[in-house]
Amino acid sequence: MSLAAEKPTTTSRRIARTVPGMPTQDGAGVKLTRLVGTPQLPDLDPILMLDTFRSDDARDYIAGFPEHPHRGFETVSYMIQGSIAHLDNHGGKGIVTDGGVQWMTAGRGVAHSEMPAQTGGQMFGFQLWLNLPAAEKMRDPWYRDIPAGEIPQIDLGGGSKAKLIAGVWNGVKGPAPERTIAPFFADVTVAANGAVDIPLAAGHAGFLYVFEGAASVGGATVPKGQIGILSEGDGLSVTAASDGARFLVVAGKPLREPVAKYGPFVMNTADEIRAAIRDYQSGKF
C-alpha cells in the first residue's frame, strides 16, 4: 500500500448557513442583539446563547442587568470596549473593562448583577452562555475575572492576529478554565485580503460572528453582523475581504443531552426546571 493511501484525509469546514441576529432587550431594558438563542438558532450544542451590545448612547445600557438568578450553565462576558461590574451572592465581585472577560459558572445556583461601570462612552461586548453536562449542573458556583493583559495575543503574520480566550492555538493556551466541553473562544483580526487557519477540533460544533469587515469560508461570505454556522470538519480557513475582517470564533464539544430551558435556568428536564424555580424562590441559591 502506498504512503499516499495511508495518509488520513482532512475535511476543511465550510459555512453550513448564515443567520442574522434578532434585536431585543434584556435586563432592565438594555438594547442588544441576540445571535444564538433565537427562533432561527435556538442553540448550537453546547452553545446556548450569544448576545452582543454596542452603543455610545448611555440610555441604551445604563439600566444594566440588576440581580437575577442562574442555574445549570456558564456565562462568559467579553468586553471589547467599556466597563461592567459584576457582583454575586457567593462572593464574586469585579469589574471587567476594555478587552477583559468575566467567566461565571452558575452551577447549582447563583444570583448576580452586571451593571455598567460608566455613565457615558461606548459600551461594546458579548455575553456567551455555555452548557454544563448533566453531571456538573449542580456543582458549586465559581467566578473569575480575566483582565485583558492575561489574554494571549497570537501573531498570525501579515498583520493578522488573534486573542485567545479559551482553547489552544499554536501551542498557546487561553486563560479560560478547563471544561468538559473543551471550549474554544477567540477574537480574530485578519488583514485585508489575508487568510488564517484556525485549529478547531474535529467533532466540535461552532460558528464565527463577523463584527468588522467581511470574511469568507470555502468561498461563502459571512457578512458583518451575521453568524456563520460551521459544518463538520477538522480545520477552518478564513479569508478576509479587501477591508479586512474581525470576528469571534466559538466552538465546543457537543454534550448530546436533553436541554430544558426556562429563562435563566438551563437543565435537562422540566422537573429540574421546576425544582430550580422552587429553590430560588425559597432562598436556596
What is the structure about, briefly put?
The chain has 285 residues and is mainly β.
What does this structure look like?
Helix content is 6%, strand content 53%. It is mainly beta and 285 residues long. The strands form five sheets. Strands 1, 13, 14, 17, 18, 19, 20, 21 and 22 form a nine-stranded antiparallel β-sheet that branches. A seven-stranded antiparallel β-sheet has the order 2-3-4-11-6-9-12, with no helix packed on it. A four-stranded antiparallel β-sheet has the order 5-10-7-8, with no helix packed on it. Strand 13 and strand 14 (160-166) form a beta hairpin. The N and C termini lie far apart (62 Å). The model is unreliable at 1-9 (pLDDT under 50).
In one word, what is the shape?
Answer: globular
What number is the mean pLDDT? Answer: 93
Question: What portion of residues is helical?
Answer: under 10%
Quaternary organization: single chain
Annotation, overall tally of beta strands: 24
Which runs of at least 5 residues are low in confidence (pLDDT < 50)? 1-9
> Structural class, from helix and strand content?
mainly beta
Rg from Cα: 19 Å
H/E topology pattern:
HEEEEEEEEEEEEEEEEEEEEEEEEH
Which percent range describes the beta-strand content? Answer: over 45%
Instruction: Determine the N-to-C terminus distance.
Output: 62 Å
- Largest beta-sheet details: 9 strands, antiparallel
SS summary, helix count: 2
